[in-house]
């Protein structure tokens, strides 16, 4: 007798409350509690995105989220020390931040911002470049890549390659480290794939912070961490389809997890045990290892997507680990 496996079959879990653990700092626990109502509901869970074909709806949402980003950035006013200049290279906009004091005379960090492949550009990207320049003490190129609905795939990847070529004209590849967080991790990896395919030398290192490298959302944590991740409680399917614009979601430049990663530079990967993208990160780590790439995986206790907000001991420890990795890449 032949049986057919039911793709919906799995482990039934009784309804219960998942407590915040005592194994994290008081500051981290407080950061998590702020995002949950008195009844235990995740405050971000009611966030509804337009359908992938509702371009007007996405434009309205981009404007609203842009306002939220602007308000959040006010808290950073006066904290960044680096100067910044905005340039154009091809169709790409790049914010070039210069620190007050250079740690590595010819070092460069190329930064790809997050934001679900739709948000996070403009002033947020510009400020992010300054923060990275301050953190690493080198010139930082913040890539303000084009995004949908106006500019779907492959515009962002094309901008990434254009910015990378610009950096290569000014720095040796051994002096460049590329980094991306969340959606920016997708664009960072896709940029290096395309750069490699075009015969360009790859950089000295790669930093991927909870990277959105699988737009099919096929990993285990997309089921197990729904509503457990209080920052990113559910699927980004709609924005993924908007970004892909009809392209196959398993295409390597769209979902770099499925690429041949041979020849990639040493890579630092980070996630948390409550991160919706935990599966993205651990699967990317294994894919890099299978390709023979030296790769570090750092998973933080109870950390949701994007960290605890930047002001906790765990966030500071993560930043120290990133700085260590990057400085070591320039030292080799």
Number of separate helices: 9
- CATH architecture descriptor text: 3-Layer(aba) Sandwich
Broad structural category: alpha/beta
Residue share in β-strands: 5-15%
Overall CATH class: Alpha Beta
Q: Unreliable stretches, pLDDT < 50, 5 or more residues?
A: none
Percentage of residues in helical conformation: 25-40%
Number of strands: 8
Mean pLDDT: 93
Question: Shape, please?
Answer: globular
CATH topology: Rossmann fold
Instruction: Tell me the count of domains.
Output: 1
CATH superfamily: Alpha/Beta hydrolase fold, catalytic domain
**Ends distance:** 60 Å
Domain Alpha/beta hydrolase fold-3: 110-306
Family: Belongs to the 'GDXG' lipolytic enzyme family.
InterPro entries: AB_hydrolase_3, AB_hydrolase_fold, GDXG_lipolytic_enzyme
Keywords: Hydrolase
Structural write-up:
This is Alpha/beta hydrolase. InterPro entries: AB_hydrolase_3, AB_hydrolase_fold, GDXG_lipolytic_enzyme. By secondary structure, the protein is an alpha/beta fold. It has a single domain, classed as Rossmann fold. The protein is built from 9 helices and 8 strands. It has helices at 26-33, 55-74, 123-136, 155-168, 183-197, 221-224, 237-244, 278-290, 313-331; strands spanning 83-89, 92-98, 108-112, 139-144, 176-181, 205-209, 267-272, 295-300. Strands 1-2-4-3-5-6-7-8 form an 8-stranded mixed beta sheet, with helices on both faces. The chain is globular. The mean pLDDT is 93.
């Amino acid at each position: 007798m032949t049986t057919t496996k039911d793709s919906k079959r799995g482990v039934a879990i009784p309804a219960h409350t998942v407590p915040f653990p005592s194994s994290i700092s008081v500051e981290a626990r407080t950061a998590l509690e702020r995002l949950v109502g008195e009844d235990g509901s995740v405050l971000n869970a009611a966030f509804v995105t337009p359908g992938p074909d509702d371009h007007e709806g996405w434009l309205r949402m981009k404007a609203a989220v842009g306002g939220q980003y602007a308000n959040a950035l006010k808290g950073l006013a006066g904290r960044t020390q680096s100067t910044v200049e905005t340039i154009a290279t091809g169709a790409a906009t790049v914010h070039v931040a210069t620190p007050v004091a250079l740690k590595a005379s010819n070092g460069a960090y190329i930064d790809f911002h997050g934001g679900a492949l739709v948000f996070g550009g403009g002033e947020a990207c510009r400020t992010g470049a300054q923060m990275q320049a301050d953190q690493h003490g080198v010139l930082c190129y913040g890539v303000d890549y084009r995004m949908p609905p106006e500019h779907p795939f492959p515009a962002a990847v094309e901008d990434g390659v254009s910015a990378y070529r610009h950096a290569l004209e000014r720095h040796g590849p051994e002096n460049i480290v590329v980094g991306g967080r969340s959606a920016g991790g997708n664009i960072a990896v896709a940029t290096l794939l395309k750069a490699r395919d075009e015969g360009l030398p790859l950089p000295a290192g790669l930093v991927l912070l909870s990277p959105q490298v699988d737009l099919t959302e096929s990993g285990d944590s997309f089921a197990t961490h729904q509503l457990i991740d209080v920052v990113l409680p559910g699927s980004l399917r709609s924005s993924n389809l908007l970004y892909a614009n009809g392209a196959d979601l398993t295409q390597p430049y769209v979902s770099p997890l499925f690429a041949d990663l041979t020849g990639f530079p040493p890579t630092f990967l980070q996630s948390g045990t409550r991160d919706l993208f935990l599966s993205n990160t651990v699967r990317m780590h294994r894919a890099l290892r299978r390709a023979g790439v030296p790769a570090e995986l750092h998973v933080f206790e109870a950390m949701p997507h994007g960290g605890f907000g930047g002001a906790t001991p765990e966030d500071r420890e993560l930043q120290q680990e990133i700085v260590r990795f990057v400085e070591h890449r320039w030292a080799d």
